[in-house]
Amino acid sequence: MNPLVRPGCRPPPRSRHGVHSLRGKLTIANVGLLAVGIVVATAVSLMGMRHYLLDQVDAQLLKTRDSLGGSQLTLRQIDSLSALAFVHDRLGPAADESKPDSVFAAVDRHGRAIEVAGFRPGDTQRAFAAAVDDPASLVRAGEPRDVTVNGAAYRATGTRLADGTYVLFAASTDGLHKGIAQALKLDLAVGTLLLALLACLTMFSVRRRMLPLEAMVETSSAIAEGDLTRRVPSSHHPTQEVEQLRLALNSMLHQVESAYRTREDSAAQLRRFVGDASHELRTPLAAIRGYLQLYEKGMLTDPAERRRAWDRMNAEADRMGRLVDELLILARLDQRPELRFRNVDLSRLVRDAAADLRAQQPGRPVTVDADGTLLVRADESGLRQVLGNLVGNVRTHTPDDVPVRLGLERVDGVLRLCVADKGPGLAEEDAARVFDRFFRAGGGAGSGLGLAIVEGVVRAHGGNVAVRTAPGEGLAVTVTLPVR
User: Fold this and answer.
1) Which domain holds residue 39?
2) Distance between CA atoms of residues 369 and 409, nearest Å
3) Angle at 76 between CA 72 and CA 77, to 5 degrees
4) Is the same domain home to 407 and 445?
5) Distance in angstroms (rounded) separating the CA atoms of residues 316 and 193
6) Which residues of 325-354 are buried (b: 16+ CB within 10 A; e: fewer)?
7) Burial classification of residue 268, based on how many CB atoms lie within 10 Å of its CB (0-12 exposed, 13-18 middle, 19 or more buried)
């Protein structure tokens, strides 16, 4: 089972392309905005067109009203003259149409249609007179009004003759309304076509722009299923925001993979460490237990044997104590403890370590290149342990007459401490594992933790450790520390 996928948890399913998807919401938003724009534009244009056409009709009506009202004629004079062609045209045979383009009627003070120029009022004139219930009010109005004659819409106005007769005339607006209706249908058809075209273009464009996001979903699903190597690929025409998101996501995935690999390596290292520690502790415990069983069974009757058993148990107990101490040191180093930094004369520590080695092995040639004073901000006890482990490594793994050199120098703002011997050296495969915990080249003596502790302490100081060795050429360990 993949440790990244918890039991009962599945990768998120891919979103379907519906109304609730981002693609659907963007499409609906764009289409909705365009629909609102089309409706507003259509309403404004149709209102403007209606206002313009009504102004044209009203202008003709007002011109006729002004010309007739300014003539100062009476109805009798109109009857006698019979020369007003517009009266004849409007009261001729065509005047009986149910919905003529224009209507002319003369009415008395009571609003009844009366005879004009020898023509009796027809049904249209009577309906027109009935539609205008108050001719005086219509005459007094400055602008024409809307009236309905036989179910048809008209714009009507009127004037008063010199004898008090009211003359009413109206122009049909059915053509205007039909034109507006046709324009509305055309606008709706064009608007619908534009909305459909916009919806298609939006779906196509959003789908193209959403491909990187879909790739991110696929990559996340693959990683959730255990493929930590997957990354979000780059698109051919990325937008700035999506590209920034892709780079950030890939960077995060790289960090996740690195953390996961580090955790796996740490877990494996911890398992090896626990196994090696158990093995190393089992040996002295088994020896102590064996001697105790011999003593319990009374098999150690000779005082010399009891003394030797006692010394062996003490030696194994000391070995086990040193091993536990070294394990505790490594555990504290793994937890990155707070070090007590202060100015330390590293030259003095090197000379002290050399003096200790000469005291323990007087026959070993020891060379020290650490004259003067070289100060470094460091933890003194930690550096003493580094030098003690390096010198102890030489003392344990090389013959007593092998020369040793302890050198210290300051180069390019760093301090380099080198402990080199002329011993048998190490093979290449052993040199690669020299800092591993519990590693002992050729199964030699010691716990195998000395150089591991050296590396841990040096790294805690922000430095590094390097090894130079070859079979028959000795071993040189170089510690580099920054000068703070």
Assistant:
1) 1-69+173-232
2) 8
3) 50
4) yes
5) 94
6) ebbebbeebeeeeeeeeeebebbebbbebb
7) exposed
Whether residue 255 is found in the same domain as residue 377: no
* C-alpha count within 13 angstroms, C-beta hemisphere, residue 89: 7
**What pairing do the DSSP bridges indicate for beta strands 113-114 and 166-172?**
unpaired
Rounded Cα distance between 386 and 417, Å, is: 10
Q: In what order do the strands lie in the sheet with 152-160?
A: 113-114, 102-107, 166-172, 152-160, 145-149
Say yes or no: 362 and 431 in one domain: yes
Rounded (10°) angle between helices 450-460 and 380-397: 150
Task: Please count the structural domains in the chain.
Answer: 4
**Do 250 and 307 fall within a single domain?**
yes
Are 111 and 88 spatial neighbours (Cβ–Cβ below 8 Å)?
no
Contact 132, 45 (CB under 8 A): no
CATH number of 94's domain: 3.30.450
Strand segments, DSSP code E, in 79-203 are 102-107, 113-114, 145-149, 152-160, 166-172
pLDDT at res. 86 = 47
Q: How confident is the model at residue 270 (pLDDT cuts 50, 70, 90)?
A: low
Listed as own residue / partner, the contacts of 409-415 with beta carbons closer than 8 Å and 24 or more positions apart are: 409/369, 410/374, 410/483, 413/482, 413/483, 414/463, 414/480, 414/481, 414/482, 414/483, 415/346, 415/374, 415/376, 415/480, 415/481, 415/482, 415/483
What integer pLDDT is reported at residue 405 of this predicted model? 92
Strand runs (DSSP E) across 329-473, as ranges?
342-345, 366-369, 375-378, 404-411, 414-421, 464-469
Rounded CA-CA distance 18/114 in Å is 71
* Boundary residue ending a domain (232, 252, 272): 232
| Most confidently modeled range among 37-41, 129-133, 307-311 | 37-41
Coil vs helix vs strand at 415: strand
Cβ neighbour number for residue 230 with a 10 Å cutoff: 18
Query: Strand 145-149 and strand 152-160: pairing?
Result: antiparallel
Beta strand pairing status for 166-172 and 102-107? antiparallel
* Three-class SS state of 371: coil
Last residue of a domain, one of 172, 187, 221: 172
Round to whole Å and give the CA distance between 143 and 160. Answer: 15
The torsion defined by the Cα of 194, 198, 199 and 205, in degrees rounded to 10, comes to 160
Residue pLDDT, tens place only, 100-136? 778 878 887 777 777 766 667 778 888 888 888 788 8
